[in-house]
Amino acid sequence: MSGPFGQLQLSRFLALLYAWSGLAVMSAFWISFVIFLAKPRQLASVWPLPMVDAGAPFETNLWQAGLIDLGLIALFGLQHSVMARPWFKERVMRSMPRAFERCTFVHFANAALLSLILFWQPIPIEVWSINAGILDGALWLVFAAGWIILFLGAWSLGIGELLGLKQMQAWANGQEYSQKLKTTRLYHWLRHPMYVGVLLGVFVTPHMSLGHLLLALGFTVYVLIGMRYEERDLIATYGQRYLAWRMARS
To answer: What DSSP designation does 187 have?
Structure first.
C-alpha cells in the first residue's frame, strides 16, 4: 500500500507496536524482578539472569558493591520520578505527540529495571533467615500478596492507561484521550496500592541479605519521594476532588 493513506496506516501500526512492545517487555522484566528477589533454588542452575544474592557480573569489594547498587537504585527511582513529572513532559518531551509520552516512559522504565537486574552486585551478608516451616510459608504468601496487590492496583488504575496503550489507540484513531481520576476498586480502600504492593514485595522474605535490605530501603526512599510529588501533581490536576478523596482515605 502506497501514498499518504498507506503511510498513515504504517505510522499507526508502528505507533501501536511501540506501545504494545512496552507492555510485552515490561511483563517479562517484572516477572524477572520477582524471581530476582525470590531467588528460588529450583531455578538457580538454569535461570540466565542474576538474582539479588548471586550472579554478580564482575568482582567488587563490599564498598564498591554498595555504591554500584545505590547508583542502580537511584537510576530506577530518578527515571520513575522525574519522567513522570509534568515539567519534564513539557520541557523535554514536548516535541513528541502527547500519546507517545507514557509509552516512552514505559520503555525507559524497562531499561532502568533491566539495568538494575543485570548490574546488581550481591552483598550476601545475612541479616535474618527464618527456616521455620509455617512462618517461612506465611512470609512467602505475604511476598506473593505484595505483587498481587501491585497488579490489582495497576488494574484499578487502568493498565491500558498506565502503560499508554489507550492513549496510543486514541491517537491512532485520530481521537483525543482524556485522563480521569481513578477512585474505585482497590483505590476505594488504599491511597497508593501499587506502592504498598512494591514495599511488601521487596521487604517480606524469610531470607534477607544485606544487599536485599539495601534494595528494600532504597525502594522505600523512592516510594516516599514519589508519593509526595505524585500527590502534588494530582492536587494541581484535580484540585478539590482529589483532596476530598484523599481525606476520606486518611
So the answer is: G
> Residues 56-62: contacts with CB within 8 Å, 24+ apart?
56/120, 56/121, 56/122, 57/118, 57/119, 57/121, 60/121, 62/123
C-alpha cell at 147: 505483587
Q: Are 14 and 99 in contact (CB under 8 A)?
A: no
Number of H helices, E strands in the chain: 10, 2
pLDDT, tens digit, 9 for 90 and up, residues 94-111: 889 899 999 999 999 999
Total domains, the chain: 1
Residue 70 CA to residue 187 CA, distance in Å, equals 31
The DSSP bridge partners found for residue 193 are none
Contact 58, 200 (CB under 8 A): no
85 burial class (0-12, 13-18, 19+ CB within 10 angstroms)? middle
CB contact at 8 A, 99 and 246: no
Per-residue pLDDT reduced to its tens digit, 59-93 = 899 999 999 999 999 999 999 999 999 899 899 99
Other Cβ atoms less than 10 A from the Cβ of 19: the count is 26
Q: Which three cell numbers mark 126? A: 545475612
157 and 191 Cβ atoms separated by less than 8 Å = no
CB-neighbour burial class of residue 21 (10 A; exposed 0-12, middle 13-18, buried 19+): middle
Distance of CA 100 to the CA centre of its chain: 18
Q: Which three cell numbers stand for residue 246?
A: 484523599
* CB-based contact 116:51 (threshold 8 Å): no
What Rg do the C-alpha atoms of the chain give, in angstroms? 20
User: How far is 118 from 30, CA to CA, in rounded Å?
Assistant: 13
The pTM (predicted TM-score) of the whole model is 0.92
